[in-house]
Amino acid sequence: MQTNGENRGSRGGCFEMTITIQQIDQAAKTLEKVVQQTPLLYSKRLSKQYKANIYLKREDLQEVRSFKIRGAYNKIASLTADEKRRGVVCASAGNHAQGVALGCFLQKIKGVIFMPRVTPNQKIEKVKQFGQKYVEVKLVGQTFDDASAESKIYTQQNNMVYVHPFDDPLVIAGQGTVGKEIFEQSAGNVDIVISPIGGGGLTSGISSYLKQKNSKITIIGTEPQGAAGMHSSVSNGSVTSLETIDTFVDGAAVKTVGNMTFAICQKYVSKIVTIPEGMDCTTMIELYQKDGIIAEPAGALSISTLEKIKDEIRGKTVVCVLSGGNNDLLRYPEILERSLIYLGRKHYFIIEFAQKPGQLRQFVDQALGPTDDIVRFEYIKKTNKEKGPALVGVELQNAKDYNSLLKRMDKIGLQYRILQQDDLLYQYLV
Questions:
Q1: Distance between CA 273 and CA 283 in Å, rounded?
Q2: Which fold has domain 21-66+171-336?
Q3: CA dihedral 356, 358, 359, 360 (to 10 degrees)
Q4: How confident is the model at residue 258, as a pLDDT?
Q5: Cα 356 from chain centroid?
Q6: H or E stretch including 322?
Q7: Averaged in consecutive runs of 10 residues, what is the pLDDT profile of the chain (430 residues)?
Q8: DSSP state of 327
Q9: Which residues have C-beta within 8 Å of that of residue 211, sequence separation ≥ 6?
Q10: DSSP string computed for 30-53
Q11: Is the CB of residue 317 less than 8 Å from the CB of residue 43?
Q12: Per 3-state DSSP, what percentage of the chain is helix, strand, and coil (rounded to 5)?
């Protein structure tokens, strides 16, 4: 999906929205003693791989391990004395919650934070750690949007102040300080900036600063394929709510982007690239194994995007915003699983084995290749005395071996069904 015309106004009944350089400069002053100016690090590995000058903006090195402290604290610090006395409420899948929690602690005000039940435990514990006695965590619903709806009701009922995770000028201006730092650290010598999009606050802030400083800088947004709300909205010309989303990339799993962020992204973002979740997992593993960087799924989106636009970036200076590093170690088995499936190295089958001696041995000896491995095997149900279906997971050394495996299974007459990720049986059994 290409979005051309960087100076267009918004369409579809939405309004024109601008965050000024002055607003972002003011946010930078507010954040001066709270936020770290994170490094802009040159990546030798990625630069060599893509024949470009690739830099990583390391927002995972913030105290809360994401950029979210910038917008959250800028909003909280700007509240009136009466608003601070009433306290704040927010909804978040994790990172914004940590920013709000730290902001509440630093400003010594009450905060109530709504988070989806599927939020990784690591993020929930961090919220409590940063907020200490000043914050209360409420776990509701399965998505950010569920938590958001409940948090807004609570805000009204208790006459508190809502700190939106992305659709607020002060929050966007706070996130825009990332763009200010990129511009200053690079002396303005940047061709392309790739920024992840959940609700759109980060990309809106970055693009607002950079495009007003230098209209020739290209801003590329990136979203997970299973939660591409901004991509859908810009394609349709108005904010479009997704019916369902994949919550795996929890930091970017938003059904409905903001009206403000939509207007800004529509105005300044040249392209929005969607990334398969499995591809993002592969990037996370490579960052850890090759660079020693622990990125969360949303944090790796910008680096994943390089592969999708490799022909466009050759010879150019590119900044990838590594937005966060809050990843629960307990998620790594799923991350590895998704990566192997995306790479074509892991496959699941339902195989009907005849209930007589030697059937499994025949499968191992005659169907599997010398480097293929059975990583899961369980009988589902013995439907009769002659046959019994089994769930079989096979991991290949090389994705190219897949067709050979199928040919060998056909040759020995196996009755099998390939389980695809969008298959209901896959969701139930795997």
A1: 15
A2: Rossmann fold (3.40.50)
A3: 130
A4: 96
A5: 48
A6: strand 317-322
A7: 35 65 98 96 98 98 95 97 97 91 96 92 90 96 91 97 97 98 97 97 98 98 97 97 93 94 97 98 97 96 98 98 91 94 95 85 93 91 72 95 96 93 81
A8: -
A9: 6, 217, 219, 268
A10: HHTTTS----EEE-HHHHHHHTSE
A11: no
A12: 50, 20, 35
Edge to edge, what strands does the sheet with 161-162 contain? 135-139, 111-115, 88-91, 161-162
Q: Which residue has the tokens 């050759």?
A: 314
Q: Is the dihedral of CA 302, 306, 311, 313 positive or negative?
A: positive
Q: Which of 283, 90, 77 is nearest to 196 (CA)?
A: 283
Q: Which residues contact 193 (CB under 8 A, 6 or more apart)?
A: 179, 182, 206, 207, 210, 217, 218, 219, 220, 318, 319, 321
Sign, Cα dihedral of 12, 6, 177, 42: positive
What CATH class is the domain 69-162?
A: alpha beta
**What is the per-residue pLDDT for 3?**
36
pTM above 0.85, yes or no: yes
Residues serving a catalytic function are: 68, 323
Task: Return residue ranges of the chain for CATH 3.30.70.260.
Answer: 344-429
Look at strands 161-162 and 135-139 and give their pairing.
unpaired
In the chain, the amino acid numbered 185 is Q
CATH architecture, range 344-429: 2-Layer Sandwich (3.30)
pLDDT at 84: 97
Output the CA torsion sign for 286, 292, 294, 300.
Answer: negative
Contacts of 85 by beta carbon, 8 Å cutoff, 6+ apart = 109
- Which regions of 174-300 does DSSP assign to beta strands (E)? 192-196, 218-224, 271-275
> pLDDT at position 330, please?
85
Where do we find the tokens 């909804």? 91
Cα 175 to Cα 51, 53, 425: the distances in Å are: 30, 24, 42
Domain with CATH 3.40.50.1100 in the chain: 21-66+171-336, 69-162
8-state DSSP, 66? B
Residue 240 three-state SS: coil
Residues with Cβ within 8 Å of residue 254, at least 6 apart in sequence: 144, 145, 166, 198, 199, 227, 229, 245
pLDDT of residue 358: 84
Which residues does residue 115 pair with via DSSP β-bridges, in sequence order?
139
**CB-neighbour burial class of residue 195 (10 A; exposed 0-12, middle 13-18, buried 19+):** buried
For 217, half-sphere exposure in the C-beta direction (CA atoms, 13 angstrom radius) is: 26
